[in-house]
Amino acid sequence: MLIRKDTQTRFPIRLVSASGSGVTGVTPAMISDGTSTARVTWVKGDGSITAVTLVQNTNFFEVSATKCPGLYHIVLPSFLTNIAGHCQLAAFPAATQFLGSVYTGTIDIIYTGSPLRIPVRLVSITGAGVAAVTPPGLTDGTTVGNVTLVKADGTFASIALTANVNWFEISATKAPGLYHVLVPASALSVLGNTDLFILPTGAAFIQQDIRSEINQIGFDSSGSGQPAIIQLTRVIDARTIEIVFDRPVIEAQATIAANYFIALDEGVVQILPVSKATKITDFHYEIICSRQVMDTPYEVTVSNVNGQSPPLG
Q1: How far is CA 253 from CA 180, 232, 234, 275, in A?
Q2: Domain annotation for the chain: domains and CATH numbers
Q3: What average pLDDT is seen over the chain?
Q4: Cα distance between residue 175 and residue 18, in whole Å
Q5: What's this model's pTM, rounded to 2 decimal places?
Q6: DSSP per position, 75-91
Q7: Spatial CB neighbours of 148, under 8 Å, sequence gap ≥ 6
Q8: CA-to-CA distance for 100 and 33, rounded, in angstroms?
Q9: Residue 138 to residues 120, 142, 272: CA-CA distances in angstroms?
Q10: Which residues, at least 6 apart from 258, have a Cβ–Cβ distance to it below 8 Å?
Q11: Which residue of 18, 38, 189, 224 is surrounded by the most CB atoms within 10 Å?
Protein backbone atom coordinates (compact mmCIF):
# COMPACT_ATOMS: atom_id res chain seq x y z
CA MET A 1 0.00 0.00 0.00
CA LEU A 2 1.33 3.44 -0.95
CA ILE A 3 0.84 6.20 1.61
CA ARG A 4 1.49 9.88 1.08
CA LYS A 5 3.88 11.41 3.61
CA ASP A 6 2.47 13.72 6.32
CA THR A 7 -1.10 12.85 5.34
CA GLN A 8 -3.93 11.26 7.34
CA THR A 9 -4.74 7.91 5.78
CA ARG A 10 -7.02 4.91 6.15
CA PHE A 11 -4.89 1.78 6.52
CA PRO A 12 -6.75 -1.40 5.44
CA ILE A 13 -6.30 -4.66 7.33
CA ARG A 14 -8.01 -8.00 6.82
CA LEU A 15 -8.65 -10.11 9.90
CA VAL A 16 -8.98 -13.81 9.16
CA SER A 17 -9.52 -17.05 11.03
CA ALA A 18 -7.17 -20.04 10.99
CA SER A 19 -9.09 -21.32 7.96
CA GLY A 20 -8.51 -18.05 6.07
CA SER A 21 -12.11 -16.80 6.30
CA GLY A 22 -12.73 -13.13 7.05
CA VAL A 23 -13.76 -12.52 10.65
CA THR A 24 -16.65 -10.07 11.06
CA GLY A 25 -17.87 -8.13 14.06
CA VAL A 26 -14.42 -7.41 15.47
CA THR A 27 -14.35 -4.45 17.87
CA PRO A 28 -11.38 -2.62 19.39
CA ALA A 29 -11.80 -4.57 22.64
CA MET A 30 -10.99 -7.75 20.69
CA ILE A 31 -7.66 -6.35 19.44
CA SER A 32 -4.36 -6.13 21.32
CA ASP A 33 -0.88 -4.72 20.75
CA GLY A 34 0.58 -7.44 22.96
CA THR A 35 0.30 -5.47 26.19
CA SER A 36 -3.07 -3.68 26.11
CA THR A 37 -6.44 -4.19 24.41
CA ALA A 38 -7.95 -1.74 21.92
CA ARG A 39 -4.49 -0.90 20.63
CA VAL A 40 -2.31 -1.72 17.62
CA THR A 41 1.39 -1.00 17.03
CA TRP A 42 2.58 1.34 14.28
CA VAL A 43 6.21 0.97 13.13
CA LYS A 44 7.72 3.85 11.15
CA GLY A 45 10.41 3.63 8.50
CA ASP A 46 13.09 4.51 11.06
CA GLY A 47 12.09 1.60 13.32
CA SER A 48 10.38 3.68 16.01
CA ILE A 49 7.08 2.30 17.34
CA THR A 50 3.87 4.01 18.46
CA ALA A 51 0.85 2.53 20.22
CA VAL A 52 -2.38 3.53 18.45
CA THR A 53 -5.52 3.42 20.59
CA LEU A 54 -8.59 2.31 18.63
CA VAL A 55 -12.09 3.74 19.01
CA GLN A 56 -15.03 2.14 17.19
CA ASN A 57 -16.30 4.27 14.29
CA THR A 58 -13.76 7.00 15.07
CA ASN A 59 -10.49 5.54 13.88
CA PHE A 60 -11.53 1.89 13.56
CA PHE A 61 -14.17 0.89 11.00
CA GLU A 62 -15.59 -2.38 9.74
CA VAL A 63 -16.12 -1.77 6.03
CA SER A 64 -18.91 -4.29 5.31
CA ALA A 65 -19.54 -7.61 7.04
CA THR A 66 -21.52 -8.73 4.00
CA LYS A 67 -19.63 -7.39 1.01
CA CYS A 68 -16.08 -7.36 2.45
CA PRO A 69 -16.04 -9.80 5.37
CA GLY A 70 -12.98 -9.31 7.53
CA LEU A 71 -11.96 -5.96 6.02
CA TYR A 72 -11.36 -3.10 8.46
CA HIS A 73 -9.90 0.39 8.17
CA ILE A 74 -7.70 2.06 10.76
CA VAL A 75 -7.35 5.83 10.42
CA LEU A 76 -3.79 7.00 10.98
CA PRO A 77 -3.22 10.71 11.73
CA SER A 78 -0.66 12.64 9.70
CA PHE A 79 1.95 12.70 12.50
CA LEU A 80 2.26 8.92 12.14
CA THR A 81 3.11 9.16 8.42
CA ASN A 82 5.93 11.68 8.79
CA ILE A 83 8.82 9.27 8.03
CA ALA A 84 9.40 8.11 4.46
CA GLY A 85 10.07 4.40 4.12
CA HIS A 86 8.45 1.03 4.69
CA CYS A 87 6.00 1.09 7.60
CA GLN A 88 4.15 -1.68 9.41
CA LEU A 89 0.98 -2.07 11.46
CA ALA A 90 0.86 -5.00 13.90
CA ALA A 91 -2.58 -6.21 15.05
CA PHE A 92 -3.15 -9.24 17.25
CA PRO A 93 -6.23 -10.75 18.90
CA ALA A 94 -6.95 -10.19 22.58
CA ALA A 95 -8.02 -13.85 22.66
CA THR A 96 -8.33 -16.17 19.65
CA GLN A 97 -10.92 -14.37 17.51
CA PHE A 98 -8.58 -14.02 14.49
CA LEU A 99 -4.98 -14.56 13.44
CA GLY A 100 -2.48 -11.89 14.38
CA SER A 101 -0.59 -10.29 11.53
CA VAL A 102 1.78 -7.50 10.50
CA TYR A 103 0.71 -5.36 7.53
CA THR A 104 3.20 -3.33 5.45
CA GLY A 105 2.81 -0.03 3.65
CA THR A 106 5.18 2.36 1.88
CA ILE A 107 5.41 6.09 2.56
CA ASP A 108 6.84 8.16 -0.31
CA ILE A 109 10.15 6.36 -0.73
CA ILE A 110 12.39 8.24 -3.11
CA TYR A 111 15.87 6.73 -3.15
CA THR A 112 18.43 9.48 -2.43
CA GLY A 113 21.64 7.52 -1.98
CA SER A 114 21.02 6.73 1.68
CA PRO A 115 20.68 3.37 3.47
CA LEU A 116 17.11 2.03 3.65
CA ARG A 117 15.37 -0.14 6.23
CA ILE A 118 13.54 -3.10 4.67
CA PRO A 119 11.04 -4.89 6.95
CA VAL A 120 11.22 -8.66 7.39
CA ARG A 121 8.75 -10.87 9.24
CA LEU A 122 10.10 -14.26 10.24
CA VAL A 123 7.41 -16.88 10.88
CA SER A 124 7.27 -20.53 11.81
CA ILE A 125 5.66 -23.24 9.72
CA THR A 126 2.38 -22.40 11.54
CA GLY A 127 2.60 -18.72 10.60
CA ALA A 128 3.43 -17.49 14.11
CA GLY A 129 6.04 -14.72 14.39
CA VAL A 130 9.44 -15.96 15.57
CA ALA A 131 11.14 -13.70 18.13
CA ALA A 132 14.77 -13.38 19.23
CA VAL A 133 16.35 -14.29 15.88
CA THR A 134 19.94 -13.02 15.67
CA PRO A 135 22.34 -12.95 12.70
CA PRO A 136 23.87 -16.37 13.59
CA GLY A 137 20.39 -17.79 12.93
CA LEU A 138 20.46 -16.52 9.33
CA THR A 139 22.37 -17.48 6.21
CA ASP A 140 22.60 -16.53 2.55
CA GLY A 141 23.13 -20.17 1.66
CA THR A 142 26.90 -20.05 2.01
CA THR A 143 27.77 -17.71 4.88
CA VAL A 144 26.12 -17.63 8.32
CA GLY A 145 25.00 -14.14 9.32
CA ASN A 146 24.52 -12.98 5.73
CA VAL A 147 21.42 -12.34 3.58
CA THR A 148 21.10 -11.87 -0.18
CA LEU A 149 19.65 -8.80 -1.87
CA VAL A 150 18.72 -9.33 -5.54
CA LYS A 151 18.63 -6.18 -7.66
CA ALA A 152 16.17 -5.48 -10.47
CA ASP A 153 18.79 -6.30 -13.10
CA GLY A 154 19.32 -9.80 -11.67
CA THR A 155 22.63 -9.07 -9.97
CA PHE A 156 22.84 -9.69 -6.25
CA ALA A 157 24.71 -8.50 -3.18
CA SER A 158 25.50 -10.41 0.00
CA ILE A 159 24.90 -8.33 3.14
CA ALA A 160 26.67 -9.26 6.39
CA LEU A 161 24.37 -8.60 9.36
CA THR A 162 25.25 -7.38 12.85
CA ALA A 163 22.65 -7.15 15.61
CA ASN A 164 21.58 -3.57 16.39
CA VAL A 165 23.78 -2.22 13.59
CA ASN A 166 21.98 -3.32 10.44
CA TRP A 167 19.73 -6.06 11.93
CA PHE A 168 17.04 -4.91 14.35
CA GLU A 169 14.26 -6.76 16.18
CA ILE A 170 11.40 -4.27 16.51
CA SER A 171 9.50 -5.70 19.50
CA ALA A 172 9.13 -9.33 20.55
CA THR A 173 5.95 -8.36 22.43
CA LYS A 174 4.21 -5.80 20.23
CA ALA A 175 5.34 -7.02 16.80
CA PRO A 176 6.64 -10.59 17.24
CA GLY A 177 8.70 -11.77 14.31
CA LEU A 178 9.20 -8.28 12.83
CA TYR A 179 12.76 -7.23 12.01
CA HIS A 180 14.39 -4.48 9.97
CA VAL A 181 17.41 -4.94 7.70
CA LEU A 182 19.33 -1.73 7.07
CA VAL A 183 20.41 -2.06 3.44
CA PRO A 184 23.43 0.03 2.38
CA ALA A 185 23.06 2.57 -0.41
CA SER A 186 25.56 0.66 -2.55
CA ALA A 187 23.08 -2.24 -2.78
CA LEU A 188 20.25 0.05 -3.92
CA SER A 189 21.86 1.37 -7.07
CA VAL A 190 19.59 -0.23 -9.69
CA LEU A 191 16.15 1.12 -10.59
CA GLY A 192 13.24 -1.22 -9.85
CA ASN A 193 12.06 -3.70 -7.25
CA THR A 194 14.51 -5.60 -5.11
CA ASP A 195 14.21 -8.98 -3.37
CA LEU A 196 15.71 -9.83 0.00
CA PHE A 197 16.29 -13.56 0.55
CA ILE A 198 16.66 -14.83 4.11
CA LEU A 199 17.39 -18.48 4.90
CA PRO A 200 17.42 -20.08 8.38
CA THR A 201 20.51 -21.88 9.65
CA GLY A 202 18.16 -24.34 11.38
CA ALA A 203 14.39 -24.74 11.54
CA ALA A 204 13.47 -21.73 13.66
CA PHE A 205 11.60 -20.06 10.79
CA ILE A 206 10.70 -20.69 7.18
CA GLN A 207 12.61 -19.22 4.23
CA GLN A 208 11.60 -15.66 3.37
CA ASP A 209 11.60 -13.75 0.07
CA ILE A 210 10.75 -10.11 0.71
CA ARG A 211 9.89 -7.87 -2.25
CA SER A 212 10.63 -4.23 -1.52
CA GLU A 213 7.97 -1.85 -2.87
CA ILE A 214 10.40 1.01 -3.22
CA ASN A 215 10.25 3.43 -6.15
CA GLN A 216 14.00 3.65 -6.56
CA ILE A 217 15.19 6.84 -8.17
CA GLY A 218 18.85 7.06 -9.18
CA PHE A 219 20.13 10.62 -8.81
CA ASP A 220 22.61 12.15 -11.23
CA SER A 221 25.87 13.00 -9.45
CA SER A 222 27.24 15.39 -12.10
CA GLY A 223 28.04 19.02 -11.31
CA SER A 224 25.74 21.95 -10.78
CA GLY A 225 24.14 23.77 -13.68
CA GLN A 226 23.16 20.59 -15.51
CA PRO A 227 19.52 20.49 -16.74
CA ALA A 228 17.27 18.50 -14.42
CA ILE A 229 15.22 15.59 -15.75
CA ILE A 230 11.83 14.44 -14.46
CA GLN A 231 12.21 10.93 -13.04
CA LEU A 232 8.70 10.46 -11.69
CA THR A 233 5.28 12.10 -12.02
CA ARG A 234 2.27 11.17 -9.94
CA VAL A 235 -1.27 12.57 -9.93
CA ILE A 236 -2.34 13.69 -6.45
CA ASP A 237 -5.77 15.00 -7.45
CA ALA A 238 -7.46 16.53 -10.51
CA ARG A 239 -5.32 19.68 -10.31
CA THR A 240 -2.17 18.61 -8.46
CA ILE A 241 0.77 16.68 -9.91
CA GLU A 242 3.81 15.49 -7.99
CA ILE A 243 7.19 15.91 -9.73
CA VAL A 244 10.42 14.15 -8.74
CA PHE A 245 13.64 15.27 -10.44
CA ASP A 246 16.78 13.21 -11.03
CA ARG A 247 18.79 15.52 -8.76
CA PRO A 248 18.29 18.35 -6.23
CA VAL A 249 17.30 21.44 -8.22
CA ILE A 250 17.58 25.21 -7.88
CA GLU A 251 14.44 26.33 -6.06
CA ALA A 252 14.26 29.75 -7.75
CA GLN A 253 13.97 27.97 -11.12
CA ALA A 254 11.80 25.02 -10.08
CA THR A 255 9.12 27.25 -8.53
CA ILE A 256 8.48 29.14 -11.79
CA ALA A 257 5.17 27.80 -13.14
CA ALA A 258 6.07 28.71 -16.74
CA ASN A 259 8.93 26.19 -16.69
CA TYR A 260 6.43 23.30 -16.76
CA PHE A 261 4.59 22.19 -19.90
CA ILE A 262 1.66 19.75 -19.87
CA ALA A 263 0.40 18.39 -23.18
CA LEU A 264 -1.59 15.42 -24.34
CA ASP A 265 0.56 12.31 -24.58
CA GLU A 266 3.10 12.96 -27.40
CA GLY A 267 1.38 16.28 -28.09
CA VAL A 268 3.04 19.66 -28.70
CA VAL A 269 0.28 22.04 -27.54
CA GLN A 270 0.02 23.14 -23.92
CA ILE A 271 -3.28 21.65 -22.71
CA LEU A 272 -3.11 22.23 -18.95
CA PRO A 273 -1.52 25.55 -17.96
CA VAL A 274 0.45 25.41 -14.69
CA SER A 275 -0.38 28.13 -12.19
CA LYS A 276 1.90 27.26 -9.27
CA ALA A 277 4.93 25.13 -8.37
CA THR A 278 5.78 24.40 -4.73
CA LYS A 279 8.91 22.87 -3.22
CA ILE A 280 8.45 19.77 -1.05
CA THR A 281 12.13 18.76 -0.87
CA ASP A 282 15.23 19.69 -2.91
CA PHE A 283 14.26 17.24 -5.66
CA HIS A 284 10.52 16.88 -5.03
CA TYR A 285 7.94 19.49 -6.15
CA GLU A 286 4.17 19.79 -6.63
CA ILE A 287 2.55 21.73 -9.46
CA ILE A 288 -1.00 23.08 -9.69
CA CYS A 289 -2.57 22.97 -13.16
CA SER A 290 -5.95 23.27 -14.85
CA ARG A 291 -8.33 20.40 -14.12
CA GLN A 292 -7.33 17.11 -15.74
CA VAL A 293 -9.82 14.94 -17.62
CA MET A 294 -10.24 11.44 -16.26
CA ASP A 295 -8.61 8.61 -18.26
CA THR A 296 -6.72 11.09 -20.46
CA PRO A 297 -2.94 10.53 -20.79
CA TYR A 298 -0.79 13.64 -20.36
CA GLU A 299 2.92 14.30 -20.73
CA VAL A 300 4.77 16.68 -18.38
CA THR A 301 8.04 18.28 -19.48
CA VAL A 302 10.28 20.83 -17.75
CA SER A 303 12.74 23.43 -19.01
CA ASN A 304 15.12 25.99 -17.46
CA VAL A 305 15.48 23.99 -14.23
CA ASN A 306 19.04 23.04 -13.29
CA GLY A 307 20.73 21.01 -10.57
CA GLN A 308 22.08 22.48 -7.34
CA SER A 309 25.70 22.54 -6.24
CA PRO A 310 26.76 20.23 -4.72
CA PRO A 311 24.38 17.50 -6.00
CA LEU A 312 23.34 14.44 -4.07
CA GLY A 313 25.10 11.30 -5.18
Answers
A1: 39, 18, 21, 14
A2: 1-107 (2.60.40), 109-218 (2.60.40.10), 230-302 (2.60.40.1220)
A3: 83
A4: 19
A5: 0.68
A6: EE-GGGG-S-EEEEEEE
A7: 140, 141, 156, 157, 158, 159, 196, 197
A8: 10
A9: 12, 10, 53
A10: 274
A11: 38
